# Entry
Amino acid sequence: MNATKFAVIGLALASSATFADELVVTQQEKGGTHAIAIDYVSEGKAAAFEFRIEVPGGATAKVSLEKCMEGLPKSHLGQCTFAKGHIIGLVYNDSNEPFPAGVHKIGRVYVSGAGAGKPVVNHFLAADAKADKLPSVIRDGGAAK
Amino acid sequence: MKTNKLLLVTALGAASLMAATTASACSLSAWSSVSGTPVANQPDQSPSVARYSGACGMQADAIGDFVTDNTPADEASYRVRFYVYTGTHAGGTADIFQARNGTGTNIIRVQYNGSQLSFGMNGTGTTRTAAVVPNRWYGVELAWEAAAAGSLNITVKGAGSSTPIAVSPITGINNSSDRIAEARLGKIAGAGTGFINFDSFDSRRTTSPGFLCRGDANNDGAIGAQDRILVTNEIAAFGAPVATGQPDANEDGAVGAQDRIVITNLIGAFADCSDV
# Structure
């Protein structure tokens, strides 16, 4: 695992001007284990966001979620679960305070025993304090080396 | 030919829409008539009336408080769904739903006695029951057919559970001459004291309405982060109905932290509306 590489890719992607919240996902595969780094580029408006990562192999895959939310700012809480063949992430604040603007390393998940395919992020939604959906983009951060 | 008949899909929902523009616009005006003094109101108004969906619910305090829909036209097939909050009713059995023919005979009857809902149909003394608890919302869906082997299918689900309460249908009843010309909802007749609430009445000719999506606070047909945000906003609004969908995820008659937990858990389980 090359943590520095993950960070560099995430920051580089964030530097391109956007007007959407972005979930930047960077993957590395080694020895049959997929390491997935999850970064979040916040416009500073989202009270909560959610994402889902489809895992090849479905419910039979081995998934490690301990570090899924390790990088959250203190303002927000989060959880990751694995259900119906998906890793499901939810980040929220119990007063609907906005997530700080900027680039945030949310955490990492690890998937093994999932066959030849690589996990795919197929859902990302950020919403503001009125529960209105914000422009939300999934960005492939590429493969870390 | 379109055979579905949406009789009163927004009987209470219409009041909800009106409530979006003014704070006290809950109304029963979409019903054909109102008997007694049932109250349509929001949870944050006085008297406070818990709702299941939208902004408004209807509360019946006394026997004789009910609303009537006379749009059915001698129907031989009838589907209905409504939500009942069992409230504090006790001390007797009350009719809470009646589907009647043109001469006032009960064709379908639903009763509540404080601990169970009971279901009957004309042409047989057979009844079915579903055990329920006070102060919880339950969805009730009925599918009735007039035929040489007529039937009443009954589905009850509520109190925060995704599993319907097992209720056997009533089948094989020769009721081919029965017709439904009127529906009543409320504390229509019988005995007992305490309040019962009602919401989201929907009746049709052939297609069952189905249950609403529990926890879908913004009514977009999915359960996600936006629903959790709306519940948070409703908690902060001291019960003012911010959510336009079904925020009372644990179906206890109030929107609070427990609903947020239920919704969080549903998101974590990747639950969709068919799961709840």
About this structure: The first helix of chain B runs from residue 13 to 19. The mean pLDDT of chain B is 91. Residues 74 and 132 of chain B are 32 Å apart (CA to CA).
